[in-house]
Each structure stands twice: as C-alpha cells, then as structure tokens.
Amino acid sequence: MVVLPPDAATRLGERGLRDADLVSRSEKPILVTAKDLHLVIVRVERRALGDDKIIDIEMWSGGRSDRMSAVVGKDGEPEPPASEGARRLLREALHDPATAAEHADVVLIATFANQADWRGMINAVEARSDARPRLLHAAILAHLRLGDLPGAKKGLAAMRARYPDAELTKAATSAVESDVGGADALRDDAVSSQAESNVLR
Question: Cβ of 40: how many Cβ atoms within 10 Å?
C-alpha cells in the first residue's frame, strides 16, 4: 500500500511522527521502522540551487536511513533520475528481509544502550511479540544492568522456551548465572554488529 500526502501525514501522526522528525533526522523514524519492518517512509524534497534543479530523497526502513539526490542543469528534469534512485533504494531495502530484521534489532539496541536507557530497552523488547534472540539477550543484560536479577531470570526462562538452542540463549544463561551484564557489553555488541553490517553493505 502506498500512502501519499495529506493522508501520509495522518498515518505518520498515528505513529507519533511529524514531518519535523523527518526533516531534523531525529531517531524517531529509525525506531518506528525498526519496530515495523513492513513500513517504509520516503520523503521527497525539490529545490533549486542557482541554475541547478535538485530532488533530495530520504528513506527510512528496517531501522536504517538512506539518502540520495538527483541534480540536473537548468534545461534538464530531475524526476527521471530521482525516480530511478528511489526505486534502487527500495530494492535494496527489500532485498533481504532477514538482514533488514537483524539490522533493525542492532539499531534498536544501540539506540537505548547509547542513552543508557535500560528500562526503555526492556519495555521496547517486551512490546515486541516477534522479538528475536538478539533483542531478548539485550533485554536480559539490561535487567542485570539495573540490578534486577529476578527480571533477568524471568526473561531467560522465556528465551529458553522460544529459542532453546540459540547461541545467544547460551550467552544469556552464562550472564544470568554469573549475574553480570551492562552498558559496555551492550554497546560493544551493537557496535560490532553495525560494523559487520556496513562491511556487508
């Protein structure tokens, strides 16, 4: 489904977003698209710079942001190259749903870890019925960071029930048994995963 203005503004508002959040490149659209992998937000802006005509396109999907610009001289039209660039961004975003989902998890973790918002991370993960091992592991470490060992054990029990053989389930088990976890572990995990993602891209 493609939704255009002004209906698009209404849909964004329902998700707690305003156009100002897109213009200012806040973290809000990144977090919203990280939670809903079926949502793609595209913002198009046309402007002139001297004799040049420019169309800027920014797209948010899967917890990531991509940008491109089409520039032509005064006798050209920027719409054709801008349209092709937008199609390319969409193809890349939808190329590998599994990779997009993994990247979205990494971005979500990094956002809360960089702000040391452990309670926010836990709440965000608990709100996700589709939370994968990386998110569940991060929430368990966040519980430990807050000194909430009972909460960490409860999270581990749920993780074991859903992903008994996952490597991150073993890592979470080890963390809970030794009662360790925290900001450094979460930040290192997020930074490492982002570096790998950039290399693959």
Answer: 16
Can you give the CATH number for the domain in which 17 is found?
Answer: 3.30.160
Regarding whether 196 and 106 lie in a shared domain, the answer is yes
Domain termination residue (choose one: 95, 110, 134): 95
Domain boundary among 95, 119, 151: 95
Note the pTM of the prediction, 2 decimals.
0.52
The whole domain housing 34 covers 7-95
Return the pLDDT at 194: 45
pLDDT beneath 70, residues of the chain: 92-100, 180-201
CB 88 within 8 A of CB 80: no
- In the chain, beta strands by DSSP E: 40-49, 52-61, 64-72
pLDDT tens, residue by residue, 133-163: 999 999 999 999 998 999 999 999 999 999 9
Residue 117 tokens read as 């918002």
Give the SS3 label for residue 58. Answer: strand
Give the total number of structural domains in the chain: 2
Distance CA 141, CA 147 (A): 10
